[in-house]
Write a structure and sequence with these properties.
Elements: E1 4-5, E2 10-15, E3 21-27, H1 37-47, E4 64-68, E5 70-71, E6 74-75, E7 80-85, H2 107-114, H3 130-143, E8 148-156, E9 159-160, H4 172-176, H5 185-200, E10 207-214, H6 228-237, E11 242-247, H7 258-261, E12 265-268, E13 271-274, E14 282-283, E15 286-287, E16 292-298, E17 307-311, E18 317-321, H8 331-357
Antiparallel strand pairs: 1-2, 2-3, 3-7, 4-7, 5-6, 8-9, 8-10, 10-16, 11-16, 12-13, 14-15, 17-18
Helix pairs in contact: 1-3, 1-8, 3-8, 6-8
The protein binds flavin mononucleotide.
Length: about 350
Amino acid sequence: MPNTFGKLFQITTWGESHGPAVGVVIDGCPPRLEITAAEIQAELDRRRPGQSDIVTPRKEADQVEILSGVFEGRTTGTPISLMVRNADQRPGAYDEMKDKFRPSHADFTYATKYGHRDHRGGGRSSARETVGRVAAGVFAKKLLGGIQVRAFITRVHDIAVPEGALTEFPSPEAIEATPVRCPHPATAAAMIERIKAVRSAGDSVGGVIECRVQGLPVGWGEPVFDRLEADLAKAMLSLPATKGFEVGSGFGGTWQKGSEHNDLFENRDGTVRTQSNRSGGVQGGISNGEELVFRVAFKPTATILQAQATVDTAGTATELMGRGRHDPCVVPRAVPIVEAMAALVLVDHAMRHQAQTATFAS
Ligand SMILES: Cc1cc2nc3c(=O)[nH]c(=O)nc-3n(C[C@H](O)[C@H](O)[C@H](O)COP(=O)(O)O)c2cc1C
């Protein structure tokens, strides 16, 4: 099922950028979970366009409508359907892109694979698809209870949070303090300047999001194909514009020897802990009780307001001038999306862990 994610806690997203609406069906959510539309709306507001002057100015209120599965403020255990109507559409801005492929976007591959596509606003390849993921992520975050999932930006283009500057688990207030969602104020200010500068030049930049999860028990994850980090990698690389994933020490760990890299065990007040966390909280595909730490790389936005060489649907060389209202950097709006996908993976694995380790009467 190409539009469905998860094994026991499943989401199916639907809709296109310039269709009437986008949404999600959540299947497998336990009953009696208290939830309000306002809680879902708060997360959608972190994702929505037009939220600041460093993202796309498209004005979408992204008002969520709960169609099923929630009765008198609590889930019923039946499929939950959530919908957000598309409002601020300017399909004319995409006329030229009907027949010309945007470099590094999904136009060429969709056109070739399907032979028929909704090109307006990128259709299904638009990041509007992630509205449903963020809405579903609210249910997953609530099910996780005291487990805290926090994503934030550590790099935009070549501007990075200095090594070792973020020792504390960043608070939601620190992350949301600036529109760029980097909890290091001096770096955040430089990032905002850079995004504004590339936007003025009709260009774009990418960046890195780090996600940390505190409070995970030991034992979530599967040992072979569905390793916790493998499912997280799939979840993150299923997001549009992602180009890389690393957990713990990641690619940097290859610079160290085993004697430098190993996380040494110790008994800390009766609990087995590690002295360092280069594993990023996962060993053998299973959470080890330390903080889960991973990073996701996002490329520069493909659609830029500059003329670029391309070909048309007939294969003829031409030029395309990008139009429409685009994010000069997708990373600030991707922060709640990364958190939602992490929460979805973790809830799915929590359920799988319970299903596999439950004690049955013999
Ligand atoms: C939050 C978010 C916002 C995005 N906004 C834009 C945008 O305004 N313009 C654009 O060309 N791509 C944007 N993208 C990326 C495209 O959706 C993506 O590049 C496209 O689907 C092709 O997929 P690929 O880059 O993963 O190959 C955005 C991605 C995210 C996560």
